Each structure stands twice: as structure tokens, then as C-alpha cells.
From TrEMBL:
Keywords: Amino-acid transport, Auxin signaling pathway, Membrane, Symport, Transmembrane, Transmembrane helix, Transport. Residues 32-464 form the Amino acid transporter transmembrane domain. Carrier protein involved in proton-driven auxin influx. Mediates the formation of auxin gradient from developing leaves (site of auxin biosynthesis) to tips by contributing to the loading of auxin in vascular tissues and facilitating acropetal (base to tip) auxin transport within inner tissues of the root apex, and basipetal (tip to base) auxin transport within outer tissues of the root apex. May be involved in lateral roots and nodules formation. This is Amino acid transporter transmembrane domain-containing protein. The keyword Lipid metabolism does not apply. One of its GO terms (molecular function) is symporter activity. Signal peptide: none annotated. The chain crosses the membrane at residues 39-57, 63-81, 124-145, 189-214, 280-299, 319-340, 381-401, 407-425, 446-466. Belongs to the amino acid/polyamine transporter 2 family. Amino acid/auxin permease (AAAP) (TC 2.A.18.1) subfamily. It comes from the Eukaryota.
């Protein structure tokens, strides 16, 4: 026992020594180097994704009043609850407490084991589903590039229709290689590139929409959106409105990876303060883009706005600019896929390491060399097989269910209430010991209830949309 105690003292001394030298953080792990700007880049990469392309369609279903109100409401709720979540990164004190490395660990610290399992299940489904959605969106953009060049070369009357499945295969193969990046801390460069691409294609979409509006070729818009008539029943109108709300919720959701992003920040100044500033930058940036894309897109296309805004400008003129926008989408979503998938990868790998700590298959790293030159990279058999399997499954699901707006609505329903509202609110109540039935408690729980009810109706509308799509779609057709 004395020998073990001496060993602990020695190890603690080494950690303290290395921490003093700046090599390790206060928890004994390698020193984190993230800043407000890298965190903002991670968030923008995750938040400004495929959701921005559906906002014009969402505005068309809801109209000017409800559409703008819904988008602003989701953005404000996301900003408020992300601040609550940032304070819960450390337990029990937001500045000096013990670190929580993942969203699930944070929930476990404040709400217990049962809630941790529930959170893990929801987070796993949302992040995996988002990976599927990103492959679908990227493949649509790649197919749009081919169609655009086909029409430009063969003429407007040519038959330029292609299957997206070949592109899904190509994206899957690419993601298999990129997914071998060991952890989140190595992804800052990818997030910066991806965030830049998101600004690029959103700006191109905005520019094309603005040009169409000022040219006098904008579509007809109404305060209440698409009107009920011969082509649209009242029932379908209601279902589409709920799906549009789900699309907007998905566009604003990034809380499932907020703790993982916060864990990349350097410890001084306090992580929660830096994260709140990063949240403010990211939410303000994304909301500005969303409002411009949604409103200008709706003004450009009117009530006939397409599900994907960039496919509504045609493939003819200017074809090169639309090609560039779609290429930016592909690059962005390649990075966003990794940002959202890394927490899933790390969850399984951490579980395997704890379950089989002595297994070479799980823990051994094999350095890679090119000739006599050593690379700053190593291979791991678990990482190679598990991550490859994950990418293959998401690619197969993308081929089986390529329903863009319905996928986004369902993901919005699955993630927005539990991950963005329920868990942050309940952890904040537990952390601050807010008394039941107090004014503050009632306000927080009322927000919880309202978002839960919205989630239920959005999920039902998404399932109804899947049912309609599957009646006509033939999966795996090349």
C-alpha cells in the first residue's frame, strides 16, 4: 500500500511538473490550444450546413410572418440554452470544477446514469443521422455539377438526369480515409476550411437570389406561404408547415457537439466565458446568413421555392457560378461530416478501451512510414475497422432514404428539444439548485414544454413525408 501511495505521489508530481511547463492541462491531458476563433469555426462548420439550403422552401411553407418568427425564435432559444450548457462543462463549479469531456459525461455529472444513457442514445441517433443527411446533400450537389455541365455542353433540351448513388459511393470512400484522423483536436484546420466553404456557397446563393429579385423576376410571395388549392390540400399544407419548422430547428441545432468543442479550448481564460463568446459569434453569423438566405430565397422563388435553394436557379446561366457553389457545399459537408461523426467515433473507441484495455486490436498504434521517412500519423485496427463500418452504413442509408427535407425535419425533431433545450435546462436547474415552482423554474420548464410539443408534431410530419416518398422511390437504383 505504501508503495502504491508513493507511486501516486510521484505521478501527481510529474503531472504538476508538466503542467507547470505548459505540456499538460490541469487534468493531466495534453495541453489544449483551442481559442474563441477555432471554437467559432467548429460551430459554424456544424451549424451552417445543409440546413441553410432548405430555408427558402421553409419560408414558402410558413410565409413571411411565421417563417421569420420561427427562425428568430429557434436562434434565440439555441443561443440562450447553449450558454446554460457552456456553464455545465465543469462540475460542480463552472470555473474551477472537474472537466466533463463529452455531452454524456456532463449529463451524468448533473442528472445521473439513466439520463446519461438517454442522452447518449439521442446524441448517437442525431449525429449519425446528420452524417446521412450530409452525404445526401453533398451527393445532390455533385450530381448538380454534372447536370449543369451536361446542359452547358449538350444544350438545354438534352436529357441530363443521373443517379446520385455513384456520388454517394465516392463520398463514402473519401470519408473512410478522412475519418482516420484520430480525434477532434486534429480537426481545426478542416473546420476552418469547411467554415470558409459554407460562407462561400451561402454568399453565392444570396447573390443569385438578390440578382433575381432586383431583376424583377422574383416569385409571388404571401404572408401565409403556399396557398391551399387544387394542388395542395389543407392537410398537406399543415404537414408541410410542420416539416418546415423541423428544417429550421435542424438548421439551428449544434448543441449535441458543444461540450466536445468546448473541451478543445485552452483553460485560461475560463472555458465557459470563451465558449459563450464563440456561441455569440456563431449564432449571430449563422442567423444573419439564415435570415438572408431564407428571405431572399423566398423573394426570388416565391411560393414555388425548391427544397434545395441552389437547385432552383437552373443549370444554364451562370453555370460556372452554380458549379462553384455546389463544389463549396461538397467540401464543406466533407468537413462537417467529420465534425459531427468524431463524437460517435470517440464514444465507441473509449468504451472499447475501457472494456478491453490490454487488447492490441483496441489500443496498439502502428506508425506509418514512407520509405525511411516517418509520418506524424499512426494506424489503429479498431479505428480502421469501426470507422470504416460506420461510413459504409451511413452511405447505404443515404442511398435507401434520399429525402432531403424529410431527413432534416426528422433530425430537427430528434435533436432540438432533448439536446438543445431539455438537458441544458435540467442541468442548469440542478447546478444552480433552482427551487421547484419558483418563477425562474416555471419559466425554464415552460420553455421545455413548448419545445417538446413542437418536437412531437414535427416528428409526425417527417414520418408522414417519408411514407409519401417511399410510395414512389426505388432505392439503390443506379
Amino acid at each position: 500500500m505504501d508503495q502504491e501511495f508513493k507511486q501516486e505521489i510521484l505521478e501527481s508530481g510529474l503531472v504538476a511538473c508538466n503542467s507547470a511547463k505548459g505540456e499538460l492541462d490541469d487534468d493531466g491531458k495534453p495541453r489544449r490550444t483551442g481559442s474563441m476563433w477555432t471554437a467559432s469555426a467548429h460551430i459554424i462548420t456544424a451549424i451552417i450546413g445543409s440546413g441553410v439550403l432548405s430555408l427558402a422552401w421553409g419560408m414558402a411553407q410558413l410565409g413571411w410572418i411565421v417563417g421569420v418568427g420561427a427562425l428568430l425564435s429557434f436562434s434565440c432559444i439555441t443561443y440562450y440554452t447553449s450558454g446554460l450548457l457552456a456553464d455545465c462543462y465543469r462540475y460542480p463549479n463552472p470555473v474551477t470544477g472537474k472537466r466533463n469531456y463529452t455531452y454524456r459525461e456532463t449529463v451524468h455529472s448533473y442528472l445521473g446514469e439513466k439520463m446519461r444513457k438517454a442522452c447518449g442514445f439521442v446524441q448517437f441517433i442525431f449525429l449519425s443521422g446528420s452524417a446521412v443527411g450530409y452525404i445526401i446533400t453533398a451527393s445532390i450537389s455533385m450530381m448538380a455539377i454534372r447536370e449543369s455541365n451536361c446542359y452547358h455542353k449538350e444544350g438545354h433540351g438534352a436529357s441530363c438526369k443521373f443517379s446520385s448513388n455513384w456520388y454517394i459511393l465516392g463520398l463514402g470512400i473519401t470519408e473512410i480515409f478522412v475519418s482516420q484522423i484520430p480525434n477532434f483536436h486534429k480537426l481545426s484546420w478542416l473546420s476552418v476550411i469547411a467554415a470558409t466553404m459554407s460562407f462561400a456557397y451561402a454568399s453565392i446563393g444570396l447573390g443569385l437570389a438578390f440578382a433575381q429579385v432586383i431583376s424583377g423576376e422574383g416569385g409571388r410571395t404571401t404572408l401565409t406561404g403556399v396557398e391551399v388549392g387544387m394542388d395542395l390540400t389543407t392537410e398537406d399544407k399543415i404537414w408541410r408547415m410542420f416539416r418546415a419548422v423541423g428544417d429550421m430547428a435542424f438548421a439551428c441545432a449544434y448543441s449535441p457537439i458543444l461540450i466536445e468543442i468546448q473541451d478543445t479550448l485552452r483553460s485560461s481564460p475560463p472555458e465557459n466565458k470563451v465558449m459563450k463568446k464563440a456561441n455569440a459569434i456563431a449564432v449571430l453569423t449563422s442567423t444573419t446568413f439564415y435570415m438572408m438566405c431564407g428571405c431572399l430565397g423566398y423573394a426570388a422563388f416565391g411560393n414555388n421555392a425548391p427544397g434545395n435553394m441552389l437547385t432552383g436557379f437552373g443549370f444554364y446561366d451562370p453555370f460556372w457560378l452554380i458549379d462553384l457553389a455546389n463544389l463549396c457545399i461538397v467540401v464543406h459537408l466533407l468537413g462537417a461530416y467529420q465534425v459531427l461523426s468524431q463524437p460517435v467515433f470517440n464514444t465507441v473507441e473509449s468504451w472499447a478501451s475501457n472494456r478491453w484495455p490490454k487488447s492490441k486490436f483496441v489500443s496498439s498504434e502502428y506508425p506509418l512510414n514512407i520509405g525511411k521517412k516517418k509520418l506524424n500519423f499512426s494506424a489503429n485496427l479498431l479505428r480502421l475497422t469501426w470507422r470504416t463500418m460506420f461510413v459504409v452504413v451511413t452511405a447505404l442509408l443515404a442511398m435507401a432514404l434520399p429525402f432531403f427535407n424529410d431527413i432534416l425535419a426528422l433530425l430537427g425533431a430528434l435533436a432540438y428539444w432533448p439536446m438543445t433545450v431539455y438537458f441544458p435546462v435540467e442541468m442548469y436547474i440542478a447546478q444552480n439548485k433552482i427551487k421547484r415552482r419558483s418563477i425562474r423554474w416555471l419559466g425554464l420548464e415552460l420553455l421545455n414544454l413548448a419545445c417538446f410539443l413542437i418536437t412531437m408534431v414535427v416528428a409526425c410530419s417527417a414520418i408522414q413525408g417519408f411514407n409519401q416518398g417511399l410510395q414512389t422511390y426505388k432505392p439503390f437504383k443506379f
